[in-house]
Design a protein that fits this description.
Glycerol-3-phosphate (1)-acyltransferase; alpha/beta
């Protein structure tokens, strides 16, 4: 009975509202301190693939990037349903599916094609780069999307000075209000259309290394370690 209630439309809508309200409170009460030059690649209006780590992505709606041209890739799981309902409050478009390289599973093929269409229309994609249940390991899905679309991957890290972490697989960061919010990005990473397996793996590692580096840099800016300790 509890599971039926928890998965009901009313419960999902309520949780979506709570998540949206929490995000609004955190996003509007934290002083914004993006790294110098953070917005430069987003100002020309050209589409890109914004890559983040799982558990570090909840503040995306509060970056000054045109929401009309953002598409958020969200899992088809229950948590994804809650997140998609929260995104609706911010006017964000969602693509439901998996970002993994196994394109025939979990509606991944449909999501992959939807992301390609959005990029070809001049809209950007926001997606977590790591493999589900394997935190901080970039999958080939995002690299193959860059290869097929010709659009760059831009690694992004967002951090708030006040937060706590859950003990789940991706150590989800729960951002808290009344502090400082910073955003850091890596350099755009392009993947050639004719990239072979070795080149795809090199691009995958480049995305992973960049995300690790900018995440450490983001927390250093606010005087914290990613685990919550002081620098």
């Amino acid at each position: 009975m509890f599971k039926r209630i928890a998965n009901s439309n009313a419960a999902l809508s309520l949780l979506g509202f709570v998540l949206a309200f929490h995000g609004w409170l955190v996003g509007h009460s934290n002083r914004k301190k993006p790294e110098a030059g953070f917005y430069k690649p987003f100002l020309d209006g050209k589409p890109c693939i914004i890559a983040l780590w799982h558990g570090e992505h909840f503040m995306v709606p509060f970056l000054k990037i045109s929401k009309e041209k953002l598409n958020i890739l969200i899992t088809t799981h229950r948590d994804g349903e809650i997140l998609s309902r929260a995104c609706a409050y911010y006017g964000l478009k969602c693509i439901r599916g998996s970002g993994g390289e196994e394109f025939l599973r979990k509606r991944a093929l449909r999501a992959f094609l939807a992301m390609l269409r959005a990029l070809h229309k001049g809209e950007s994609i926001v997606m977590t780069a790591d493999v589900p249940k394997v935190a901080r390991t970039v999958g080939l899905g995002i690299v193959m999307l860059a290869q097929r679309s010709g659009r760059p991957i831009i690694p992004v890290a967002i951090a708030t000075s006040r937060f706590f972490r859950l003990s789940n697989w991706d150590r989800t960061c729960i951002n808290l209000p009344f502090g400082t919010l910073t955003a850091v990005r890596g350099e755009p990473i392009y993947v050639p259309r004719d990239a072979d397996d070795a080149s795809l793996e090199a691009a995958r590692r480049a995305v992973e290394d960049s995300l690790n580096a900018i995440t450490s840099r983001a927390y250093a800016i606010i005087g914290k370690r990613a685990d919550g300790g002081l620098t």
